[in-house]
Design goal:
two-stranded antiparallel ribbon, globular, alpha+beta, 139 residues
């Protein structure tokens, strides 16, 4: 199964995740979700696969979240999905799908959980070092 990333090239976290995937030896299918949003059916399936609610996937920063008053609990899951379909920027990112699972990769190192060959060492754009090394049980 190929790796798929729902990507926003303007997002540093999304760029870091894409770089980690590529450094792991995978060339993912990159879906620029703002240009090519997922279908409603696909979005519902992604949310279910991540075991999240639509509200948990909502992005607040740099979106119409406040303007649309999406913090109001009156909105149902279906209505929140409707808003995401109308305004794909409300879909938090990056979402990565692999044979090991589907995750919202925030923070970016979450992607290491679902890659077959995660990178052992990665330096993010901001200089933060990420390691997939697991501490020994005696540490």
């Amino acid at each position: 199964m190929p790796v798929t990333i729902y990507h926003n090239p303007q997002c540093g976290t999304s760029r870091n995740v894409l770089a980690m995937i590529r450094q792991s030896g995978e060339e993912p299918s990159v879906i620029a979700y703002l240009e090519t949003p997922p279908s409603r059916e696909t979005l519902v399936a992604l949310i279910a696969a991540m075991q999240m609610t639509p509200r948990e996937l909502l992005r607040e920063k740099d979106t119409p979240y406040a303007e649309l008053r999406l913090g109001d609990p009156k909105w149902s899951d279906d209505e929140i999905i409707d808003f995401m379909m109308q305004h794909p920027i409300l879909i938090n990112r990056p979402i990565v799908v692999t044979n090991k699972g589907t995750r919202l990769c925030r923070p970016s190192e979450v992607v290491l959980e679902i890659l077959d060959r995660p990178v052992a060492h990665f330096v993010k754009e901001d200089g933060e070092v990420v390691s997939s090394a697991r501490p020994s049980p005696n540490s």
